[in-house]
Amino acid sequence: MDRIMSPSILAADYLNLERDIRNAVAWGADWLHVDVMDAHFVRPLTFGAPMVAQIRKICGIPLDVHLMTDRPEQIARDVLDAGADIVTFHVEAAEDPAALIAMIHERGSRAGIALKPYTPLEAVVPYLETVDMVLVMTVEPGYGGQKLMPHTLEKAKALRERCPDLAIQADGGLCGETIRDVVRSGVNVMVAGSAVFKAEDPSSMIRFWKTFDPEDPA
Ligand code: DX5
Ligand code: ZN
Fold it and tell me: For 115-146, how does the pLDDT look when each residue is reduced to its tens digit (9 = 90+)?
């Protein structure tokens, strides 16, 4: 299964966002991860559909939009209008996840379902047949630069055993020290903010994360 790298612009320099997005693409990003926060589902407030529309104009790779919002039904429509390719919402926030997945598909985009660190895997099981991706949050959503919670990778492992072909995304605390365990757990879509934008050599880092053998002891 292909490994996909999706750098999170949460860690970019907002005054130089266009530069940082173009850099991420040049470094080999497969997708661009856009964290939409509403100051309600999570405490911070970031950016919304108008920002997604602006980014769409300068970015040719898929936009991977992570909705950390209550009432994701409304904002999902707006980010789809703005050009999102993958829309991931939180199972804890959606009123009717099945209907929301269907709506995202009707609009021609891919649907992801996210679960917070202490939400059990069972919460997403009813949607595994229809969803394109499961996002296993490896930190509490809201902030970049946190430490990965190792217990969350047990959920990724169990999910990979159950669904060998499903895209499984991990988000939060991915770095040089944790990436081996992340990949070993069966995750194939890697989101990283600080690790990418603060790397000395982001191109080599991305290439390495996409290709290393997690079983190689070196
Ligand atoms: C956190 C966001 C993440 C965040 C990850 O709630 O969903 O996408 O950018 O940041 P790092 O990679 O710094 O942990
Ligand atoms: Zn995210």
Answer: 999 999 999 999 999 999 999 999 999 999 99
Predicted pLDDT of residue 218: 67
| Number of domains present in the structure of the chain | 1
Q: Is residue 216 part of a domain?
A: no
User: Would you please indicate which residues are annotated as catalytic (active-site) residues?
Assistant: 35, 171
How far from chain centre, in Å, is Cα 39? 19
Residue 72 Cα to ligand 2 midpoint, Å, equals: 14
Residue 60, domain member (yes or no):
yes
Asked if 92 contacts 103 with a C-beta cutoff of 8 angstroms, the reply is no
Range of the domain at 179: 4-211
pLDDT at position 217: 75
Torsion of CA 114, 118, 123, 127, to 10 degrees: 20
- Residue 218 domain-assigned (yes or no): no
Compute, in angstroms, the gap from residue 182 CA to the centroid of ligand 1.
Answer: 15
Q: What percent of the chain has pLDDT over 90?
A: 98
Residues 218 and 149: their CA atoms lie apart, in Å, by: 24
**Mutate which of 65, 143, 190 for ligand 1 pocket (most atoms within 8 A of beta carbon):** 143
Whether residue 217 lies inside any domain: the answer is no
- CATH code of the domain covering residue 143: 3.20.20.70
Nearest C-alpha to atom 7 of ligand 1 is from which residue?
A: 141
Mean pLDDT of 167-188: 98
Residue 176 has pLDDT above 80, yes or no: yes
Question: What ligand is nearest to the CA atom of residue 86?
Answer: 2
